[in-house]
Amino acid sequence: MSYLQPGKVLAFAHRGGAYHPEIEGLENTMAAFRHAAALGYDYLETDVHLTADGVLLAFHDDVLERVTDRAGIVRELALADVREARIGGREQVPTLVELLDAFPNARFNIDIKSEEAVAPLAALIRERGLWERVLVGSFSRRRITRFRELTDARVPTAAHPWQIVAFRLSPSARVAQLLAGNAFAAFQVPHRRGRLTVVTPGFVRRAHAAGHPVHVWTIDDPAEMNALLDRGVDGLFTDRTDVLKDVLQGRGQWLSAQGGTTT
Q: Do 44 and 13 form a contact (C-beta atoms < 8 A)?
């Protein structure tokens, strides 16, 4: 099982499948990831922040308020303080290490959400030899560039915004590669950004010509899923893990835990 599977469609459980009716309100919790794994998801998406005492958390926001019953800025809180918060009134915020250990056969897509988390994440991957088990991205060009430097470009990473723009607007894959370089493994992009369609047929064609798969986030509507799959994208992130699984099974493109397809 790999992040780079030509001809395969990867299904990513975004924050564990944040809007599945059975776990809504429990994003980025052990309960959510267990639920996704039980559905057969091998690719789990999460985010990382760093606590004041240097622990990597699987948590999206830089503050606790939106999803927990406590308030506070994550980077200013020790792990013990964060542990007092409850997501959905019952679930603790997990550490990244806890997720990695709980799902040893899963691949993790990790979004770096803070500057402070860059070096500790690189160190963790290096210490545990997770080179083939993670794909790391960030909206920040500075963060992802620094991460690549710290890991000697051994870890698969997603393209940063400038690299995406280069492939979206260039007339050919060759020109795009000259502008963007080749230091990334995959595009992980929204279908649209405002009025701009990012994942056009031309974008997918140029990405594939350069050897880069295209993963699209965060898609919960079955019609949109099918349209993107017809366009040739290589992976979809979803909060509705039930819907995406149904769509992929209907198309004969659902990857089983063994890396094969099921219908």
A: yes
Identify the active-site residue in 35, 49, 60, 215. Answer: 60
> CATH number, domain at 175?
3.20.20.190
Residue 90 structural domain: 10-262
What is the residue type of 161? Answer: P
Describe the crossing of helices 201-209 and 173-180 by its angle, rounded to 10 degrees: 70
Per residue in 186-218, pLDDT (tens digit) is 999 999 999 999 999 999 999 999 999 999 999
User: Closest by alpha carbon to 231, among 219, 245, 243?
Assistant: 219
Tell me whether residue 160 is one of the annotated catalytic residues. no
Can you give the pTM of this predicted structure? 0.93
The answer to whether residue 138 sits within a structural domain is yes
Is 14 annotated in the active site?
yes
User: Both tokens of residue 230?
Assistant: 């017809």
Helix, strand, coil percent values for the chain (each to nearest 5): 35, 20, 45
- Name the amino acid, one letter, at 162: W
